[in-house]
Amino acid sequence: MAISMYSASVPIFLRMLGNMTAWLDKAEAHAVQKKFDPQVYLAARLAPDMLPFTKQVQIACDAAKFCVARLAGTEAPKFEDDETTLAQLRDRIHKTADYVRSVPAARIDGSDDRDITVPRRDGAMTMRGEAYLKHFVLPTFFFHTTTVYALLRHSGVDLGKTDYLGSLVSAPQ
Amino acid sequence: MAISMYSASVPIFLRMLGNMTAWLDKAEAHAVQKKFDPQVYLAARLAPDMLPFTKQVQIACDAAKFCVARLAGTEAPKFEDDETTLAQLRDRIHKTADYVRSVPAARIDGSDDRDITVPRRDGAMTMRGEAYLKHFVLPTFFFHTTTVYALLRHSGVDLGKTDYLGSLVSAPQ
Q1: Contact at CB, B3 and A5, closer than 8 angstroms
Q2: Rounded to 5 degrees, what angle do the CA atoms A56, A61, A65 make?
Q3: A23-27, A59-63, B46-50: which range is least confident on average?
Q4: Would you call A135 and B172 a contact, using CB atoms and an 8 Å cutoff?
Q5: Phi, psi of A26 (to 5 degrees)
Q6: pTM score
Q7: Looking at the partner chain, which of A7, A134, A150 has a beta carbon nearest the beta carbon of B130?
Q8: How far is CA A131 from CA A75, A171, B14, B67, B74, in A?
């Protein structure tokens, strides 16, 4: 099988969303063990002018959701950004993965050359599907997942490379 | 043009390596302005048991270098991990980009199904080329580039989303 727009996007999202869920599980266990309220994580920031933990999770999810919807030429489901607990953030990740999983590969394959328009505060931007995936979505998705991970490491949660990457032993496709 | 193993790897590396160079330039200017030694950045860590800034830059570079070499079935050039200044780290990024640029697309395209073996402390791991790129290289590359960025943000360097992603106005391919 040759790499395709579907295979270069959806499996990456699903795998990292799954990994991120496991980090939240470990974060919760850490809070219980150290006897602090797990909601403390939600406001954590790496710098005062960077977005807090909750936003990092939400934006990582949205990067995956909007990528799949835009490449497939469909409307993404709207998720309210109203999560206030770790459990609700886990639900957000699950809902995102369910949606990403629901879009057929055939809708996404062939989107390499399709024009994708991204609304942004400073005006809409149009890129080819492949450039959109490679230079906008993937860096954005990994930026926010890595920041979630870094905030938990910074908070003392016992995470390592295997948690970040997920198990590679059963070589995923 | 359809996405390929070359187009899904090398352009991503070259673009982010270029962005990272620009972050180091801004970091140096910030140190000069605030009158501190730019070498202070090199030991910065997000958590006491995370690798310092210098290592983050080196590993980001190596993720790109080894990916290209392994997919192409060639030997990667050896770079000593002996950088002790920002200028030397910038050189490391340039050397890496030069090498990544030097490998012909035809050597990398078609590596989707090739077996790639990665030496690791806990034993070598073999994956298909596509899985290696998607689930090992890209998460690793973006983990370390994002951590470099986060350490500079944490140190007060004035960086934003446009610095992280690079300009998207002239829609790259």
Answers
A1: yes
A2: 145
A3: B46-50
A4: yes
A5: -65, -35
A6: 0.96
A7: A7
A8: 20, 27, 13, 20, 27
